[in-house]
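Sequence in, structure out. Go.
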Amino acid sequence: MSDNYERIGSALDRFQEAHFWIHMMENFYHDADPFRWHLNVFLKAIKEVPQIVQMELQNERGFPEWFKPHRTDLNNDELFGVLSKKRDFVVHQGMLVPNTHASLGVTEGRGMKLGLTYPVHPLEDSESAMTRYLHHASMHDDFLGVLMPDDDSMPCVRRRWQLDNHDLEVVELCSQTWLRVGKTIEKVLIWLGEESVPKLALSCRHSNQRVQYKLFDRDKLIKEYATIKGQ
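Output:
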């Protein structure tokens, strides 16, 4: 790492921390509370990056004047602005609960083979939603064929998180904002004299298909269903 990177080392560390929280949101996509908590810390981390940059370089001649319009542009960016407001809400007002939309059914790995919109509360885990369906099926009918033997399909819950008044899915919103902040970091490094800045990338991003679908072992569901029927 060159001296230029070390001069904004704390900001870069916070930037990479924000990257880490994006992956944690992916890992806990179907666990309501952990998903929200990792979103919270991402919001805090990403907003602190330009603040730390300004603090680290405030005594560099010419930097405050140069950085001011770049920081203004970032603050006025639509995506950064949305998340910045949500961060302020989390820190100063209360509990951030994103909206969630879900479907339940079976998949062959290329979207829903058979499924219907299914009511899932934003504070409910996807596994709990599947258990509720099994309780319903025990009293009525497995109308979605979740328990029907089929080697080519798997039971699933498809879920999507969104913030109020924004169409982008939450993880995608955070990812695009991270990349936008990264562009500002690149400009700072170039201002410091760095000639070659590595291209930003969110390494090991999961596909939306993988993240949004929670797959279930049918044999385990059949056993759970039998236990419910026997109660």
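Check: The first helix runs from residue 3 to 7. The longest strand covers residues 99-107.
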